[in-house]
Structure formats: structure tokens, C-alpha cells
Amino acid sequence: EPEVTQTPSHQVTQMGQEVILRCVPISNHLYFYWYRQILGQKVEFLVSFYNNEISEKSEIFDDQFSVERPDGSNFTLKIRSTKLEDSAMYFCASRGTGDYGNTIYFGEGSWLTVV
Amino acid sequence: AQTVTQSQPEMSVQEAETVTLSCTYDTSESDYYLFWYKQPPSRQMILVIRQEAYKQQNATENRFSVNFQKAAKSFSLKISDSQLGDAAMYFCAYRKSGSARQLTFGSGTQLTVLP
Q1: How far apart are CA A6 and CA A105, in angstroms?
Q2: How many other C-beta atoms are found inside a 10 Å radius of the C-beta of residue A27?
Q3: Is the CB of B42 less than 8 angstroms away from the CB of A108?
Q4: A111 CB within 8 Å of a chain B CB
Q5: Residue B53: which of B78, B27, B14 has the closest Cα?
């Protein structure tokens, strides 16, 4: 069964460093998303991406965040200068179209620890 | 703005018994989708079941079924014949119909299955 894959599964970084989280969405999906989940809290929407541009973003997705689809398969989230409060699980997700396009499928997450 | 409320932070059920997890939501839209996702200790987000708001028939997936009450804006999940592997955090989520619309999650219900 097709799945969303994310790398790395866990990353520890120093405060102020740049981090890039990578995702390979399900092939032929057209909508891509990043969510985050701070430990013990609910899952929060960060950004959605379609047709090579951001469709929606939340108030969390400020100037330190950026997304990119550098080629036909990868979808990345960059955090420019990490803060302690960026420590969270980051989920990539994707969605297709048609009858099965109503469901957003999630990757296994990338756990980011900022020290 | 849409909100999703899960009023039960924790639930427990005896193995082989049935449990119902509650979810209510607030929206002014008529066309939307509702989902239950399961998050085991591995923290992966796994789709359990989905419901289209335009369908009156309640969705079922094997041991999982929902009670969708559109007028009451209620969407509960029933797990029959509970198994130890059902132990997880369960999130109710809402998505407005339309292109790149993202999910709005509830705060989750931690389900414990007792042997």
C-alpha cells in the first residue's frame, strides 16, 4: 500500500540551527501538508501546498518556516533558526483527488528536539 | 472557525468489550468530512474511518463504526470486540470540503484496553 515517508525519524539540533525535514508524499497525490504535534498536545496545521505554491498557512507558519518541492517527489519543511519551542513531532501528509481524494494520509513523523 | 471537541481525555475498556468515543464539532458548512485517526505509541497517525457529511449512512470498517448525527454535530466512534492493539490515542478530525483544505483535530482520547 502506498505510504508517505519522512526522514529523518528523529533529529536533535542546537537552538539557532537550520533544520530540513524531508517527505516523499504518495505518488500521484497533488496536495501536501505539514502538521506538528508538541508532546502531549493536539495536532496543529502548519501549511498546505498545491501546484507548487502555498495554499493555506496557519499563524504558526511564520517567516522562520518555508516549504519547497525541489523535484517531482520530495516535499521539504525548512526551519531557519530553530527555537526550543519548535521541539515537536512534525507530520507530512498528502491527499489525492477523486473518490479517494477526501482523505489525508500521514507519514510516520519526524521528531525534532531542539536543545 | 471550525472547532472539534473531544470531551473524554481518557477511556478504558475491557478486552472483547465495546467502547464509544465521543466527538462534537462546530461548523456552519454543510459539505465536509469527518475522520477518526489512531495514534499508537509509535506516534504514527493512522486513519481508522471516515464519514462524508452528505451521506446519511454511518460508516463502518470491520470492528469500527461511527454514529454520525449531523444536526447535533456529533461524530462518535464505536469499537467493538476491543483488542489490546486498539490501545492508542484517538483523534477526531474535521475537514471542510474543497481543494487544499486542511484537517482540524480534536484534543484526543487516550484509550486503554485492559486484558
Answers
A1: 12
A2: 10
A3: yes
A4: yes
A5: B27
**Residue A46 and residue B66: Cα distance in Å, rounded?**
28
CATH code of A5-114, in short, is: 2.60.40.10
In chain A, where the domains are located:
5-114
pLDDT tens digits, one per residue of B58-69: 999 999 999 999
| A1 pLDDT above the threshold of 70 | no
The pLDDT tens digits of the residues spanning A45-73 come to 999 999 889 999 999 999 999 999 988 78
What number of CA atoms fall less than 13 Å from residue A61's CA on the CB side?
A: 20
Percent of chain B beyond pLDDT 90?
80
For B19-99, strand residue ranges (E) read: 19-21, 24-26, 32-39, 46-52, 60-61, 64-69, 74-79, 88-96
Domains detected in chain B: 3-110 (2.60.40.10)
- Residue A109: which of B43, B50, B102 has the nearest Cβ? B43
Contact criterion met (CB < 8 Å) for B45 and A48: no
Distance from CA of B37 to the nearest CA of A (A): 10
CB B64 within 8 Å of CB A5: no
Question: CA A6, CA A22: separation in Å to the nearest integer?
Answer: 6
* Cβ within 8 Å of B, A 40-59: 41-45, 48-50, 55-56
Q: Which of A42, A50, A109 sits opposite B106 (nearest CB)?
A: A42
